[in-house]
């Protein structure tokens, strides 16, 4: 499976967290990244997003249907995510629009094979990491194909 982990674009600060909206810069970031992705994603790509407005607004720029999952909200525990990935199509493409720190924690797990404490890798706002992901009886095996930020794509 191709797995694209995409951090929501820049959003306003302040509570309530799930209602935070994209800023003007965030809208530009999301538009730039989505335009690049749209030209490379197959038509049957699945898109999963958190309930947060900023994640949904980021995904809106892909101009395709998406599934909203509370299991991807900002405060989730990253170690629950491999079980969620097991439900994804093994030969398809999945885009997940989410949040730090769990995006960075999941990426570290996929590439290192273990959780390594609470360490995580940094994702730029609006940036994404593209993995080739396989799963067998030994767990997940990931290859990093690309790491891109909106600034790199502009």
UniProtKB/TrEMBL annotation:
SMART domains: PGAM (SM00855)
Gene3D superfamilies documented for this protein: Phosphoglycerate mutase-like
Protein name as annotated: Histidine phosphatase family protein
């Amino acid at each position: 499976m191709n797995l694209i982990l995409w951090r929501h674009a820049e959003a306003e600060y302040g509570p309530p967290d799930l209602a935070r909206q994209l800023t003007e810069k965030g809208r530009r970031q999301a538009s730039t990244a989505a335009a690049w992705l749209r030209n490379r994603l197959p038509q049957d790509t699945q898109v999963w997003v958190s309930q947060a407005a900023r994640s949904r607004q980021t995904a809106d720029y892909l101009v395709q249907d998406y599934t909203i999952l509370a299991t991807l909200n900002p405060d989730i525990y990253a170690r629950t995510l491999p079980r969620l990935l097991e439900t994804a199509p093994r030969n398809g493409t999945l885009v997940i629009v989410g949040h730090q720190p769990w995006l960075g924690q999941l990426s570290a797990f996929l590439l290192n094979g273990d959780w390594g404490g609470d360490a995580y890798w940094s994702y730029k706002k609006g940036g994404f990491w593209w993995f080739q992901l396989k799963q067998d009886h030994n767990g997940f095996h990931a290859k990093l194909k690309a790491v891109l930020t909106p600034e790199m794509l502009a």
